[in-house]
Amino acid sequence: MNSIEEKPIKQASFLDALIPITVLVCLLGAAVYLFGDNSSSGPNQIALLFATFTAALIGLKNGYTWKKLEQAMIEGITLSLGAIIILLMVGALIGTWLLSGTVPTLIYYGLQIINPSWFYAASCLICGIVAMSIGSSWTTAATIGVALLGVATGLGLEQVVTAGAVISGAYFGDKLSPLSETTNLAPAVAGADLFDHIHHMLWTTVPSFIIALIIFIFMGFNAGGSAEAGRIDEIVNLLEQNFNIGFEMLVPLVVLLFLAIRKMPAFPAISIGAVLGAIWAMLFQSDLINSQIDASQGHAIGYFKLVWTTFFDGFSIDTGDEKMDSLLSGGGMAGMLTTTWLIMTALMFGAIMEKTGLLDMFVKSILKIAKSTGSLITATIATCIGTNAVAADQYIAIVVPGRMFKDEYEKRGLKPVNLSRTLEDGGTITSPLIPWNTCGAYMQSVLLINPFDYAMYAFFNLINPLLAIVYAYLGIKILRITPKHLKQEANAE
């Protein structure tokens, strides 16, 4: 057994790296073709598992023991546990906020305040402000984003475009917030100061966001006549008939945003929001709860049982309107289990690819052709996007390319903020566009729209990497320092 473990490790070849990627792309394509929008409910997970087994076989061929590969997969899953517990609690929060009337109240007032002509742009801007305030695109999408999709339904507007606006705004705000984990992670990996990093990002991020807003405004004016006043009145009446509506129903949202601004970690903050939603449901939605309880074990037990069930199985309602039933039903931890499965299998694949050196092989191949500053930054962005697709996690898509390119940026006399900005331009904001990425899977679970469907409307997320590449080739805001080897030569003289 010892002789097997001590077998020398053979360096991976480019063909080795290409095989599991090819297997994954082919299987994911087949999953989408055969199962359509249901591909994330099992088919994608199986594709990722087969790709993981393929990468593991290559690892075994190159001298890795199964024990080491298995440990890498376990460590990969461990990386996802923080996201998973947050994801499960978000499911509980959505369920209790539907029952408490928090989400219905947001929809109710949104229908009366927001004009269809500027709804898409307003959705993008609102999500941007909230995400910048709390530093979380996930929390923004699960709360404000869910409500805005409800408003879009009432206004007769496209949900996929609304989802694109929500994603655009949420990731713009997250990217520029000093409270965001990725905004802190990127400069830490690159060796840059946090606020220098944020300042440097403004040059690519703000113009991209302005362009996205202009597009959303244009689309909104073209869609402005699609809402039916009668339908809006009908939805408002249904909300009034089934829920107690009032500004006090927004207290759980206000408390959650306050806790996030105060930098409370996501899991306890969302947990408090979910519990507060349950309390608010019992205080203000007694008529609704009484109409749904099973009183066979007693009224009080049935009352408590329904609220408890909302945490793990979500909330459902029968208003007599099928579209409204779909809009006002959902949530629960159980509804997040498919996404949890997807995240775990995706990170297993990413962990094997990194452990066996297959990811590193791609980067080395890219560096051979990245001669200019423009091509280096383009290569970094491409690597971040590729890592998002292969390793399926935005944190890995920042850390791995950051480690691999850091020395090269220094050798070429580029300040660390160039790398940190590029890691965010390529890694952070493209993660929600990939269905099997942790961010894409999460967004699908809360917005109930496949990332492949909303991706073409997430204009900010599409424009920002392209603008960063244009800046790189034109030399706009590319900050330089004296390369390390020239400093050493000067000191020697």
TrEMBL record:
It is found in: Cell membrane. It is a multi-pass membrane protein. GO terms for molecular function: antiporter activity. One of its GO terms (cellular component) is plasma membrane. Belongs to the NhaC Na(+)/H(+) (TC 2.A.35) antiporter family. PANTHER family: MALATE-2H(+)/NA(+)-LACTATE ANTIPORTER (PTHR33451), MALATE-2H(+)_NA(+)-LACTATE ANTIPORTER (PTHR33451:SF3). InterPro entries: Na/H_antiport_NhaC, Na/H_Antiport_NhaC-like_C, NhaC_Na-H+_Antiporter. The chain crosses the membrane at residues 12-34, 46-64, 76-98, 118-139, 146-172, 201-221, 242-261, 267-284, 333-353, 454-474. Keywords: Antiport, Cell membrane, Membrane, Transmembrane, Transmembrane helix, Transport. The keyword Thylakoid does not apply. Residues 169-476 form the Na+/H+ antiporter NhaC-like C-terminal domain. The keyword Transport applies. This is Na+/H+ antiporter NhaC. It comes from the Bacteria. It comes from Pseudoalteromonas gelatinilytica.
